[in-house]
Q: What sequence folds into this?
């Protein structure tokens, strides 16, 4: 016999931050409450295509540039190759890299070029979200509605995302990056959260307090949350990394994501939020359903945060200049990226 839990709100009347207060038998109501409380439809006008990326302004970029001290550069991308994590879920495959011209062709003189010049060329075929990537605003819908109150079918058609295509963000995603190494803080002995661990707003705030002033989070920042799951895959193999159990953000962090006014957030996991999701009945990625189409938040997944985490721990500094531009693929609802942190 199931027991219905009354939804608990905080002193402001908004859905609370404690996962214990979730009605685990009613994802529909829990999602709807947060979509209503933390939505941003109309905040930047009816024609907006950027959502929370609007929080990044020129002053924020100047602030971010001032954080560069040592000049150390860290790529935050996982590999893009056939050895990647994908297992074919919804036709997501690993990249297929094919050479169309090779050194052998050049040696044999079969390329048809004059005066001995030769060359190599290649092509890659891959889903845009098979490795390190951004989820665009056209990636997730809520009851047939897309970001800013548009009908999903008017936004994304067989021709692509006609309104909020990822190309609109191509020159936008450069700001102050902040690493929250939750894995290292909560599990200092391993640096790795166990699969299924739901990161709460309290966990995020406690990590900030432990790391110090350089990890304070505010408007226009891009927050990177390290769980340590990717570290585990490098030691033990991919396993169920793509789509299986994982540590990640609790649905109850929606309020934190809204009130901090961050521009974007990324994790080292496949799905950003905790998996399995926090319900005893069928549910799938409820935090996505709140934050992408309702809040307008750009989400990054499958980032490699290990080298950055080691440098931040060594220096005792957790903020840096972050450049993470998507490829301007017209009409795409996501994009592979090579995020760069400059310390």
A:
């Amino acid at each position: 016999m199931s027991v219905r839990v009354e939804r608990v709100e905080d002193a402001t009347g908004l859905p609370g931050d404690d996962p214990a207060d979730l009605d685990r038998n009613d994802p529909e109501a829990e999602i709807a409450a947060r979509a209503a409380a933390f939505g941003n439809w109309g905040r930047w006008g009816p024609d907006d295509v950027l959502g929370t990326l609007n929080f990044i302004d020129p002053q924020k970029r100047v602030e971010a540039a001032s954080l560069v001290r040592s000049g150390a550069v860290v790529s935050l991308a996982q590999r893009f190759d056939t050895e990647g994590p994908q297992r074919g879920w919804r036709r997501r495959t690993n990249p297929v890299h094919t050479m169309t011209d090779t050194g052998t062709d050049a040696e044999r003189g079969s390329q048809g070029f004059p005066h001995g010049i030769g060359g190599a060329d290649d092509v890659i075929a891959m889903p845009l979200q098979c490795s390190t990537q951004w989820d665009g605003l056209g990636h997730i819908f809520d009851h047939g509605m897309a970001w800013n109150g548009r009908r999903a079918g008017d936004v994304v058609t067989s021709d692509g995302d006609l309104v909020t295509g990822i190309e609109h963000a191509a020159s936008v995603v450069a700001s102050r990056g902040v690493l929250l190494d939750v894995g290292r803080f909560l599990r200092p002995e391993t640096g790795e959260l166990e699969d299924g661990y739901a990161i709460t707003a309290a966990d995020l705030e406690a990590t900030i307090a432990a790391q110090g002033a350089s990890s304070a989070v505010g408007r226009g920042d891009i927050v990177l949350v390290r769980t340590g799951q990717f570290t585990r895959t490098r030691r033990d193999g991919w396993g169920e990394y793509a789509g299986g159990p994982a540590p990640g953000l609790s649905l109850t962090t929606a309020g934190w994501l809204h009130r901090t006014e961050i521009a974007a957030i990324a994790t080292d996991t496949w799905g950003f939020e905790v998996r399995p999701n926090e319900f005893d009945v069928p549910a799938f990625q409820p935090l996505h359903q709140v934050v992408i189409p309702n809040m307008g938040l750009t989400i990054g997944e499958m980032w490699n945060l290990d080298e950055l985490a080691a440098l931040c721990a060594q220096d005792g500094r957790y903020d840096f200049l972050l450049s993470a531009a998507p490829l301007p693929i017209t009409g795409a609802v996501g994009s592979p990226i090579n995020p760069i942190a400059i310390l």
Q: What stands out?
A: Residues 19-87+128-342 form a domain with the Glucose Oxidase; domain 1 fold (CATH 3.50.30.50). The longest strand covers residues 174-180. The chain has two domains: 19-87+128-342, 97-125. DSSP finds ten helices and 17 strands in the chain.
